[in-house]
Design brief:
- The complex is a heterotrimer.
- Chain A is an alpha+beta fold.
- Chain A has two domains: 75 residues, Roll (Ubiquitin-like (UB roll)); 65 residues, [2Fe-2S]-binding domain (DNA polymerase, domain 1).
- Chain A has a five-stranded mixed β-sheet with strand order 2-1-5-3-4, covered by helices on one side.
- By secondary structure, chain C is an alpha+beta fold.
- Chain C folds into three domains: 183 residues, Aldehyde Oxidoreductase, domain 3, CATH 3.90.1170; 315 residues, Aldehyde oxidase/xanthine dehydrogenase, molybdopterin binding domain (Aldehyde Oxidoreductase, domain 4, 2-Layer Sandwich); 144 residues, Aldehyde oxidase/xanthine dehydrogenase, molybdopterin binding domain (Aldehyde Oxidoreductase, domain 4, 2-Layer Sandwich), CATH 3.30.365.
- Helices cover 29% and strands 23% of the residues of chain C.
- In chain C, the strands form six sheets. A seven-stranded mixed β-sheet of chain C has the order 3-5-1-12-9-10-11. In chain C, strands 7-15-14-13-8 form a five-stranded mixed β-sheet, with helices on both faces.
- Classes of the chains: A alpha+beta, B alpha+beta, C alpha+beta.
């Protein structure tokens, strides 16, 4: 079926399988492999992207449901080659280890900032509750988001 | 892997209903899809057609007040429930349920209509809707009908027939001059992002220091949430004067805790989880009453659970 | 020594930094991960993101039964499906038996795995595979394979495996491995002991839960060579098993380490690589296998379920007189590392406390459950849970403070391992406990928690701690060495060619920092690619907590050799003695002619032109020590006595790491280790159903990791006193980081409730049941 939507500012018109998920289309059709499938059931958040300003698990959105929507993925975070302050804060705070959860973490944090640019630590933890990480214990991820929120970077 | 199906993307509600009756084979509605997509992928559910409601404008419009009712459209997401000022004001327990369900990503997609339609025993919105005595409008090709949540929950069979969908949820407002307090709390196996092992919603309405209404519903101990009718009756008409409020609140909590344990014992006798739930459910009693009487400072200094 | 209290100083981060400033330029600094930008931008290509022209996808059919003989497999319908290239089962695959954890040729290990057996031994065992043009077709075809099983009686309980007439899962039955070792005369000592405290402690099967599931790609070529792209921990282990199963010479199997999306031991053993390699060989096409979460949970590896019986004898002064520890190690349906991990956990018993009379007995058994294997700590989290929970029980019975009790018994620097293992080295566990107790305000907080408890409220606080030790490589057990080649190029940049594996812990950057320190070169000017079995020298792999201590020492040795060669060759150019050659910030000169400076690159070019040689060194570093790494966790918890839910309020992790090459990486390991340890203590368990053998915890919805809201704040204190053979005195951290956490949390809960909970995880049900006793 036909799918017209915007990803990272660019409009796409694609022919997709009805059963394809947004995640499948991003990864396989558009080659945007930043979003990962860590569980396929909306528990790990590795596939998180931003759809019309809200964080969603792209493994739980049918591609067809993204029609007319604006999607932002980790590949679209940096602008004109300049890293988003969240990305820079993740790097500077040692918030990245294996990196597999990183795109999802970044997009959840970005979505938080879109509606709440100065979140408290509790709000940060809540925003990241649906993003699992086995490497970092979240400590430096939370530090990085705090840092970025304070514009300390 | 997901079996093959087609998707219809109607532009409005009327089209959605027409499509549903027109299409051949197994037809399912999808909105947030946070449960359905998984059920389709695992083969638990099968469909020839999905009708996507996620962009049907009538189902997505914002909560409104109409004729003494808070009117919610079935496409309202849990995120919206938790933040909408009208919901927070008139149906706080539903807002709390919205906050405590799933993760931010799930709350951004999952809808109230979907939660009602899937009627999971642990669904977080259902106890809140039961305690709020909400009504649900169901539409299909044969027209619309309205059921109370109590009726829906009491029904032996699935109330939603094939090709029917939930369109609206109506919540009666408190009458003029009546103060409504309400709250919701749950126990999961984690503070956040956990299916409820127990949940409880409470609505209390006060008029000049007298309890006019008490409505409670406990979830995850049966197919549907249970209303605590006997307990409610016991407390209606009781005075909660400022000077004695603390004492009364303590009594309510104590009796509610006992009542809940009894309720669990009756609901799931001999079940493996009975031993745990009969005790843990008491925590809900204390948490809920502490929230109903915020001025009494009944919180016990903990913070392990509850997510708020 | 504990006696040197006077000279001991607290290694605060500030002081460490200050010290590093004075003496070290790159070591001790928080440089970022070498691939952090690629990871932050989503550009890094993990194996799942990679595709090859003509690549096929394989999906595996897993057994729904715990124990059954396969009577018949009918794949005709699957084969008829367009897009299906092949269906494989025991009927058409090599029946070579192998063991998934061997890492060197000639290693003895019970080989009881095959690509596909004609008998399935756990729910999740491999039955067949479909290789097809895409995943969807492969999945569809799986559903068309008809399998007839003859069900066999199954066994899920490791203790039942030791009973007479227990189900025999492999010939000879269980235990398939038994060992006893120790020191002194424990049985005589027990007879005279004033107090003996016994416990039975149980640790669950857990999932490693790397966010990247198991995935690999095998690519055949015209010469018959198979190249495997895999996020693995031990390239040479993969090469060994793949070559054996495919019957290929080692040089016809090439293994390339791809970016690792998390492992924690879960990708240490060889699981899907030989399958993909064989499918690629058989079909002549590249083949990818990518497991989903459920498949990774039940069909790869788990931590061993371990049951420990511990008896500790003490005198009234709190001196441990003797201890006896018996473990039953459940390795699941196949042997894997069952014997080695059984030994590894036992050895730790002799390296943490001075116990003159001690015996360890282990019986390793098979059950019809998911296969256990390497898991962060390699037995240490299990054995320390067993003994550290028991020690708190002992302290409680003695009426002694747990910290005080431990201080009376902990090992001292350079103590010997009484069971005959390598020296403990500069073992600084006493420092960890003393400094940690101070910083955590242990006594004050413990007293506060106890005072608060008397009010008998709903929420009770508890304060607990635990200690642990872990290894630094294989010295004393297996051969341990590494070979590295380091070159300086004509522009002064460098390449380290070695068999290292980056697991996200910072290995690549760590190696660069070490080399940079020796040669005074910007670490960004060094490339340190990960291993490739065709071109990299042999390395034992990222296992046994050996990488920083052993590979780091290898990098140091190679860098020193390069420096020596460079100075020797430069001296000829500069007309001075080698020791007169000054190398500073990539500039070189003779100390006699400081006005004649040139860059390293310019010098390399001159050396090529005039000396007709290049700056390259290949060095082999042979491990010559295996000191203990030590750690102590201090933790406060709050238990909701109505719900049984535990909140970990905060945690202090103190670690004796010798020297932190990159303190940021060290802390990163500790934070992650703590998260994993809390999960082991409170929530993580595969939950094997005792009737069906199915894992109830086979998804992240039913297998709960600690997530961000439940993660406590964690403070880290590093004790950096060097003294061993690691580079700049560095010791391991990745595995020890998780070892003290679970028992510390359990001890805190027991302190809060006055219970003696010993079965992990402490689920709300278990806590309420204990409270109701």
């Amino acid at each position: 079926m036909k799918l017209e939507f915007k990803v990272n500012g660019k409009t796409y018109e694609l022919d997709v399988d009805p059963e394809s998920r947004l995640l499948d289309v991003l990864r396989e059709e558009l080659g945007l492999t930043g979003a990962k499938e860590g569980c396929g059931e909306g528990e790990c958040g590795a596939c998180t992207v931003i759809m019309d300003g809200l964080a969603v698990n792209s493994c739980l959105v049918l591609a067809a449901q993204a029609r007319g929507k604006e999607i932002l993925t980790v590949e679209g975070l940096a602008e004109n080659g300049e890293l988003d302050r969240l990305q820079q804060a993740f790097i500077d705070n040692g918030a990245i280890q294996c990196g597999y959860c990183t795109p999802g973490m970044l997009m959840s944090a970005k979505a938080l900032f879109l509606r709440n640019p100065h979140p408290s630590e509790t709000e940060i933890r809540t925003a990241l509750a649906g993003n699992l990480c086995r490497c970092t214990g979240y400590v430096n991820i939370i530090n990085a988001v705090k840092d970025a929120a304070e514009g300390a970077v | 892997m997901m079996p093959e199906f087609q998707i219809a993307c109607p532009q409005n509600l009327a089209d959605a209903i027409t499509e549903a009756s027109r299409l051949q084979g197994e037809v399912l509605f999808v909105n947030g899809g946070t449960d359905l997509i998984l059920e389709l992928r695992s083969g638990q559910k099968k469909a020839d057609w999905l009708i996507d409601l996620s962009q049907v404008p009538e189902l997505q419009s914002l909560p409104t007040l109409e004729n003494g009712m808070l009117k919610l459209r079935s496409g309202v997401t849990f995120t919206r429930l938790s933040t909408d000022p009208l919901v927070r004001k008139h149906a706080r327990c539903l807002a709390h349920a919205g906050e405590q369900m799933g993760s931010a990503q799930i709350r951004n997609r999952a809808t109230l209509g979907g939660n009602i339609a899937s009627a999971s025993p642990a669904g977080d919105s259902l106890p809140a809707l039961a305690a709020l005595e909400a009504e649900v409008t169901i539409e299909g090709s044969e027209g619309a009908r309205t059921l109370t949540v109590a009726e829906m929950l009491a029904a032996k069979e699935k109330t939603l027939k094939a090709r029917e969908l939930v369109t609206e949820i109506l919540i009666p407002l408190a009458e003029q001059g009546i103060e409504r307090r309400s709250t919701f709390t749950k126990i999961g196996s984690r503070t956040q992002v956990s299916i409820a092992r127990l949940n409880l919603a409470a609505v209390m309405e006060l008029e000049h220091g007298v309890i006019r209404k008490m409505r409670l519903a406990v979830g995850a101990i049966g197919k549907a949430p249970l209303r605590l009718y006997e307990f409610e009756k016991e407390w209606e008409g009781k005075a909660v004067k400022a000077e004695s409020a603390g004492k009364i609140a303590g009594e309510i909590a104590g009796t509610l805790a006992e009542f809940l344990t009894k309720t669990v014992d009756q609901a799931i006798p001999g079940r493996h989880s009975q031993a745990y739930k009969r005790q843990a459910v008491q925590a809900l009693a204390f948490d809920v009453v502490a929230e109903l009487f915020p001025e009494q400072g009944l919180g016990q200094g903990g913070g392990g659970n509850g997510g708020r | 020594m504990a006696e040197d209290k006077g000279v001991k100083q607290l290694a605060t981060p500030e002081r460490q930094a200050a010290a590093a400033e004075q003496t070290l330029k790159y070591v001790g600094r928080n440089l970022p991960l070498h691939d952090a930008v690629a990871k932050a931008t989503g550009k890094i290509q993990y194996t799942g993101d990679m595709n090859f022209p003509g690549m096929l996808q394989a999906k595996i059919l897993f057994s729904p039964l715990a124990h059954a003989r396969i009577k018949k497999i009918d794949a005709s319908a699957a084969l008829a499906l367009p897009g299906v290239a092949a269906v494989f089962s025991h009927e058409n695959t090599p029946q070579t038996l192998y063991n998934s954890q061997v890492w060197f040729a000639g290693q003895e290990a019970r080989a009881d795995e095959r690509l596909f057996h004609d008998t399935v031994r756990f729910v999740g065992d491999r039955v067949a595979a479909v290789v097809a043009t895409d995943k969807k077709i492969a999945a569809k075809a799986l559903g068309l394979i008809k399998v007839e099983y003859e069900e066999l009686p199954a066994l899920f309980d490791p203790e039942e495996a030791l009973t007479e007439n227990a189900v025999e899962i492999h010939p000879g039955g269980s235990p398939f491995f038994e060992k006893e070792f120790g020191c002194g005369n424990p049985s005589e000592t027990f007879k005279q002991a004033e107090l003996i405290v016994e416990d039975r402690v149980e640790t669950p099967k857990i999932h490693h839960a790397a966010m990247e599931t198991h995935v690999c790609i095998a690519v055949p070529d015209h010469s018959g060579k198979i190249t495997v792209y895999t996020p693995c921990q031990i390239l040479y282990s993969v090469r060994l098993v793949v070559a054996e199963v495919l019957g290929l010479p080692y040089n016809k199997v090439r293994i390339l380490k791809t970016p690792m999306g998390g492992s924690f031991g879960g990708k240490q053993e060889v699981t899907i690589e030989p399958l993909a390699a064989f499918f690629a060989q058989a079909t002549g096409k590249p083949v990818k296998i990518e497991y989903n979460r459920q498949e990774s949970i039940i069909s790869t590896r788990t931590r061993t379920r371990t049951i420990g019986y511990v008896r500790t004898a003490v005198d009234q002064n709190g001196k441990i007189l003797a201890r006896e520890v018996k473990t039953i190690v459940d390795t699941g349906a196949y042997t894997s590392n069952g014997a080695i991990v059984s030994m590894a956990m036992g050895k730790k018993l002799f390296r943490l406390y001075r116990i003159e009379n001690q015996v360890y007995r282990v019986q390793a058994v098979h059950t019809n459950t998911p296969v256990a294997g390497a898991a962060r700590g390699y037995g240490s989290p299990q054995i320390h849970a067993i003994t550290e929970i028991n020690l708190d029980h002992v302290a409680n019975r003695l009426g002694l403070d747990p910290v005080e009790f431990r201080l009376r018994n902990l090992v001292h620097p350079y103590d010997e391992d009484l069971s005959g293992g390598p020296s403990l080295g500069n073992a600084r566990i006493i420092d960890c406990v003393e400094e940690g107790a101070k910083l955590f305000r242990w006594h004050e907080r413990r007293t506060q928690a106890e005072a608060g408890r008397s009010t008998n409220g709903r929420f009770r606080r508890g304060v607990g701690m635990a200690c642990a030790t872990h290894s630094n490589g294989y010295f004393g057990a297996f051969q341990d060495f590494t070979t590295m080649t380091l070159r300086m190029l004509e522009d002064g940049s460098m390449i380290l060619n070695s068999g290292i594996h980056e697991l996200g812990c910072g290995t690549v950057t760590t190696m660069k920092q070490i080399i940079a320190e020796v040669l005074d070169i910007n670490p960004d000017r060094i490339e340190a690619p990960e291993g490739d079995t065709e071109t990299s020298p042999y390395d034992v792999g990222s296992q046994a907590s050996r990488v920083t201590h052993i590979c780091g020492a290898g990098a140091l040795k190679a860098a020193r050799k390069v420096k020596e060669i460079f100075r020797r060759e430069a001296s000829k150019i500069l007309g001075c003695e080698p020791e007169d050659v000054v190398m500073r910030s990539e500039i070189v000169w003779s100390k006699h002619k400081p006005e004649e400076k040139m860059t390293y690159g310019e010098m390399v070019r001159l050396i090529q032109q005039k000396n007709r040689t290049e700056i390259i060194a290949t060095e082999t570093y042979q491990a010559a020590d295996n000191p203990g790494s030590y750690g102590a966790n201090f933790v406060e918890v709050e238990v909701d006595t109505l719900t049984g839910l535990v909140r970990v309020i905060d945690l202090l992790a103190v670690h004796d790491v010798g020297k932190a090459i990159n303190p940021g990486f060290v802390k990163g390991q500790i934070y992650g280790g703590v998260q994993m340890g809390i999960g082991l203590a409170l929530s993580e368990d595969l939950q094997i159903d005792p009737k069906s053998g199915k894992a109830k915890g086979d998804s992240f919805a039913r297998y709960h990791l600690i997530n961000a809201p439940d993660m406590p704040s964690v403070e880290v204190l590093l004790i950096e006193k060097g003294g061993d053979l690691g580079p700049f005195g560095a010791k391991s951290i990745g595995e020890i980081a998780t070892c003290p956490t679970a028992p510390a949390v359990v001890n805190a809960v027991n302190h809060a409730l006055g219970t003696n909970l010993t079965t992990l995880p402490l689920t709300p049900e278990r806590i309420l049941a204990a409270l109701n006793e």
